[in-house]
């Protein structure tokens, strides 16, 4: 197992301060996820809006690791369910717990699992080089899409796989692949900077 970026940055901290730094990092990724949700573009042909959340989920998990990355997304969902306006702004989708019952619920509920997958691969060193980081991000993105499509099929009254793909996959996959390609460069770049600053 490889240390995560957070492990490397807190390695020299006292154990008491390290726990506080880990909690702060989890909260930071939670806040970034909420901010990314506000950069939301409604699309006229699908109830699923375009957001930058998946990229924040995956990069944040790569930095934190599987357990803390997953925790950051569980916290995000918990705060959203509690009623804080953290989910993507939408003229037709409600805030609060009802959002998870709607068409985007599957994507949201998949975030902790996607974070766990991306974080687990980072703990195996996938975040050190671009191509490996790209594989880790694609695996996490696949979890997000699987959760979203499955929920569209189950929650919708007549959503077949074909219909779910039409409203929940095809409109987003090209843009998400571009975003993942860019996001995959983040962690190797940060690791490179971190190594050059080591004494």
Q: In the residues, how many domains can be counted?
A: 1
Number of E strands: 2
Mean pLDDT value: 91
Q: What ranges have pLDDT less than 50 throughout 5 or more consecutive residues? A: none
CATH topology: Arp2/3 complex 21 kDa subunit ARPC3
Report the end-to-end length measured between terminal Cα atoms. 23 Å
Number of helices: 10
Lateral strand order in the biggest sheet: 1-2
Helical amount: 55-70%
Shape: globular
Largest sheet data:
2 strands, antiparallel
Structural class designation: mainly alpha
Rg over CA atoms, rounded to whole Å, is 17 Å
Strand content: under 5%
Salient structural properties:
199 residues, mainly alpha, Arp2/3 complex 21 kDa subunit ARPC3, two-stranded antiparallel sheet, 2 strands, globular
What does this molecule look like?
This protein has one domain: Arp2/3 complex 21 kDa subunit ARPC3. Helices cover 69% and strands 4% of the residues. The chain is built from ten helices and two strands; from the N terminus they run ααββαααααααα. The protein has a two-stranded antiparallel ribbon. α6 (105-122) runs antiparallel to α7 and α7 (130-155) crosses α8. The longest helix has 26 residues, at 130-155.
């Amino acid at each position: 197992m490889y240390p995560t970026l957070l492990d490397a940055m807190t390695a020299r901290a006292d154990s008491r301060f390290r726990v506080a730094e880990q909690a702060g990092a989890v909260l930071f990724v939670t806040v970034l996820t909420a901010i990314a949700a506000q950069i939301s573009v409604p699309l006229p042909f699908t109830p699923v809006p375009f957001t930058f959340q998946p990229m924040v989920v995956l990069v944040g998990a790569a930095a934190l690791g599987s357990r803390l990355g997953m925790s950051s997304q569980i916290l995000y969902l918990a705060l959203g369910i509690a009623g804080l306006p953290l989910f993507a702004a939408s003229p037709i989708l409600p805030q609060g717990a009802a959002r998870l019952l709607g068409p985007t619920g599957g994507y949201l509920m998949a975030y902790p699992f996607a974070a766990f997958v991306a974080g687990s691969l980072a703990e195996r060193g996938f975040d050190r080089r671009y191509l490996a980081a790209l594989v880790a991000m694609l695996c996490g993105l696949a979890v997000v899409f699987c959760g979203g499509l499955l929920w569209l099929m189950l929650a919708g009254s007549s959503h077949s796989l074909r219909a779910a793909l039409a409203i929940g996959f095809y409109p987003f996959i090209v843009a998400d692949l571009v975003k993942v390609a860019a996001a995959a460069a983040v962690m190797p770049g940060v690791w490179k900077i971190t190594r050059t600053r080591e004494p």
